[in-house]
Amino acid sequence: MGRAVAELALQDPTVHLVGGLLRTRRAPGDLEAVPPGVQLTTDPASLLPEADVLIDFTAPEATLQYARACASHRCAFLTGTTGLDPGHLEELRVVAAHVPVLHASNFSLGIALLRVFLSVLARALPDWDVEIVEQHHRYKRDAPSGTALLLAASIRSARQEVASEIVSGRRGIAPRQPGEIGIHAVRAGGEVGYHKVLFASQDELLSLSHRVYSRRAYAVGAVAAAKLLAGRSPGWYRIDELLFPTLGQLA
Ligand SMILES: NC(=O)c1ccc[n+]([C@@H]2O[C@H](COP(=O)([O-])OP(=O)(O)OC[C@H]3O[C@@H](n4cnc5c(N)ncnc54)[C@H](OP(=O)(O)O)[C@@H]3O)[C@@H](O)[C@H]2O)c1
C-alpha cells in the first residue's frame, strides 16, 4: 500500500511527496528509483516537520508509534491499518486531541459511498431482511472480511439495533431470526474484494454490490482523504464526511 500511495502522490500535481518512513534502513539498491527530493528514512522526527499529513498502512504497533510522532510534530494522521483493537483506537483518539486523525478499514471510494447508501436503506426499510455475501481470493486468512463487518455495523447503527445478531453462514436447522444479519464468506481464485448486500421483504429484493479490481482503489481514496484532512483542526474525522460532505449527513 505504501508504494501504491507513493505512486499516486507523485502523479498528483496538487501533492508534494516529502518522503516515506521505513522500518529498517535499506541498501540504496533495495528500492526502486526514488525521485530527487523524496526522503526515505527510519526517523519520523526528520520527516514529519516537513509534512502536512502522514498516510499509514502498516501494523497496529507501528500505527500507534507513527500516530504519537504526528501528535508531537502537529502533522495530520491518516491510517488504513486493520486489526486495531479497542485499546489501539482509544490511543488514536488521544492523538486526535492534538492533530486531525482519520482511520478507515476500507479506503475505497465505492465502499465509503456504499455505507452511506446502506444507512439510508436500513432506515427506510426497517423490517427487511439483510444478508451480506463477501468473496475474496483463496489466500485470505480472516472470515468474514473486515469490510463485511463494517457494512453490517453501518446497517445496525442506522437501525439502532446494536443488539441484533450477526450470523456467519448457516448450517443444519438454522431458521432466520428477526433482525439478524447473515454474512457469508466465499473464498475462491484471485478475487480482490467483492461485497453484495441484500435487502429483502416477502415480495421484493434489492441488492447493492461493490467489487475492487485492484489495491490502487484504496490508495486513491487514501490520497483523496489525506488532501482533505491536512490543515484541519485537531479531531476525529470520518471518511464519508470528508469525501462526501453532503451525502455523509444521510449516514
Ligand atoms: N484501509 C484500507 O483500505 C486497506 C487497504 C489495504 C490494506 N490495508 C491494511 O493496511 C496494512 C498494510 O497492508 P499492506 O498490504 O500494505 O501490507 P504489507 O505489504 O505487508 O506492508 C506493510 C508495511 O508496514 C511495515 N511495517 C509492518 N510492521 C511494522 C512495524 N512494526 N514498524 C514499522 N513498519 C512496519 C512493513 O515494513 P517492512 O517492509 O519493513 O516489513 C511494510 O512496509 C494492513 O493492516 C492491511 O490490512 C488497509
Give a brief rundown of this model.
This protein has about 250 residues and is of the alpha/beta class. The protein has helices spanning about 1-10, 45, 60-75, 85-95, 110-125, 145-160, 215-230, 240-245; strands at about 20, 40, 55, 75-80, 100-105, 130-135, 165-170, 180-185, 195-200, 205-210, 235.
From the structure above, extract its key features.
single chain; alpha/beta; 5-stranded mixed sheet; binds NADP nicotinamide-adenine-dinucleotide phosphate; 8 helices
Question: What do you see in this structure?
Answer:
- The protein has helices at about 1-10, 45, 60-75, 85-95, 110-125, 145-160, 215-230, 240-245, and strands at about 20, 40, 55, 75-80, 100-105, 130-135, 165-170, 180-185, 195-200, 205-210, 235.
- The chain is α/β, with parallel strands linked by helices and about 250 residues long.
- The strands form three sheets. The chain has a five-stranded mixed beta sheet with strand order 7-8-6-9-10, with helices on one face.
- The mean pLDDT is about 95.
- The structure holds NADP nicotinamide-adenine-dinucleotide phosphate.
- NADP nicotinamide-adenine-dinucleotide phosphate (NAP) binds next to α3.
